[in-house]
Design a protein that fits this description.
Blueprint (H helix, E strand, L loop, with lengths): L8 E6 L4 H16 L3 E7 L2 H4 L2 H5 L3 E3 L14 H8 L4 E4 L6 H9 L5 E4 L2 H6 L2 E3 L7 H14 L6
Parallel strand pairs: 1-2, 1-4, 2-3, 4-5, 5-6
Length: about 160
């Protein structure tokens, strides 16, 4: 388990369903960047969000149903493969709703520590499960997570 101070690279997975969730994700990314962390977001956007003007402004790596096969497994594609093969210090799944495509990437990731909110699937796939005081707010989840990662292995840097 890594202490938060020694973490340099963070992969983020999410599947926002609204502009509010996209704004929350933006706040999470800004928060990590203020802490001098390199952030690599991978966002699953469904067809309803694709046509939204707000989603066209984001510069994150985005994929959707068209990048997946008929049962939802992401196809081999350079950006997705690069993300899966990058050895992040931590990978945080901020998709609080089940998404087979993101779960597939989460499982295949070469990240050193994989973190999810507490759920039945996180028991199977995550190295670290976390339950936030406000499970619907991504920024609160991240701040509380950082608190615990700062306490863990405090002497390790």
């Amino acid at each position: 388990m890594t202490n938060f101070e020694s973490i340099k690279t963070i992969g983020l997975l999410s599947n926002p369903k609204s502009q509010v969730e996209i704004q929350e994700l933006d706040q999470v990314i800004e928060y990590f960047e203020k802490l001098d962390k390199h952030i690599f977001p991978l966002i699953y956007i469904d067809n309803k969000m694709k046509n939204d003007v707000f989603t066209k402004k984001i510069s994150w790596t985005v994929f959707g149903k068209e990048n997946c096969n008929w049962y939802g497994k992401p196809r081999k594609e350079i950006n997705l493969n690069h993300f899966k093969n990058k050895e992040f210090d931590i990978l945080i799944d901020l998709s609080f709703l089940e998404n087979f495509s993101l779960k597939s990437i989460f499982i295949q990731s070469k990240a050193r520590l994989k973190i999810m909110h507490s759920s039945n699937s996180s028991k199977q796939f995550a190295d670290f499960m976390f339950k936030s005081s406000n499970p619907q707010n991504k920024l609160i989840f991240v701040k509380e997570l950082i608190h615990y990662l700062t306490i863990i292995n405090k002497n390790q840097k």
